[in-house]
Design goal:
Order of helices and strands: EHEHHEHEHHEH
Number of helices: 7
Strand order of the largest sheet: 2-3-1-4-5
Shape: globular
Bound molecules: shikimate-3-phosphate
CATH class: Alpha Beta
Number of strands: 5
CATH topology: Rossmann fold
Number of domains: 1
Radius of gyration: 16 Å
Distance between the termini: 15 Å
Helix content: 40-55%
Length: 189
């Protein structure tokens, strides 16, 4: 199985789906954001406010490189399901690391699905890249979550698609359905 990475925009469910799928597959699950938080002893918003996006991307790249270099050694099994951050692949160095070491499953969703997931329990507030977007604004307003997601997805969508070995369209599915689809990918169904 080696390292399978879940990729996709914020709010597509990479962490929750990955955790469920890894349990079903009986493999280790690693969330890159959690590794970064552990390594820095700070939350993601704290890291962004201290060193900005470029600083965060450098830490994200270092954390990813360090993690992949431990693969198959004492503390880390060689079969891993790894949830990346929504912006990991925007960094060239991280993208190269992923290309060399991982197979990618893209959890693809429409702007509406992503916005609905991010609105759920105020999830958008914990994402610095969405700062300034107003979760209460109507979708057509330039400040809305939908407008922000649409403009970021215009740049990121092609990057996810290019990196993907498998694309799963997740609109209308609940997380356990998607986890089962991931399982089917592995059993070749
Ligand atoms: C980011 C996504 C976040 C986290 C950071 C930056 C992004 O991860 O890495 O806030 O640029 O899209 P999730 O996709 O898990 O929310």
């Amino acid at each position: 199985m080696a390292v399978w990475a879940l990729i996709g925009f914020m709010g597509c469910g990479k962490s929750s789906i990955g955790r469920t799928a890894a349990k079903m597959l009986g493999v280790a699950f690693i969330d890159l954001d959690e590794e970064i938080v552990r390594r820095c002893g700070k939350s993601i918003p704290e890291i962004f406010s201290a060193i900005g996006e470029a600083g965060f991307r450098a830490i994200e790249r270092e954390t990813l490189a360090e993690l992949l270099s431990r693969k198959g050694k004492a503390q880390l099994p060689s079969d891993i399901l790894l949830s990346l951050g929504g912006g990991t692949l925007t960094d060239e160095g991280s993208r190269e690391l992923v290309k060399k070491n991982c197979k990618c499953i893209y959890l693809r969703a429409t702007v509406e699905t992503l916005a609905a997931n991010l609105r759920w329990e105020g999830e958008a507030a914990s994402r610095p890249m969405l700062a300034g977007a107003d979760p209460k604004a109507p979708a057509e307003s330039p400040d809305s979550l939908e407008s922000r997601i649409a403009s970021m997805m215009a740049a990121r969508g092609p990057v996810y698609e290019k990196a993907a070995d498998i694309i799963l369209d997740i609109d209308g599915l609940d997380y356990s359905d998607v986890a089962r689809q991931i399982l089917n990918c592995f059993s070749g169904k």
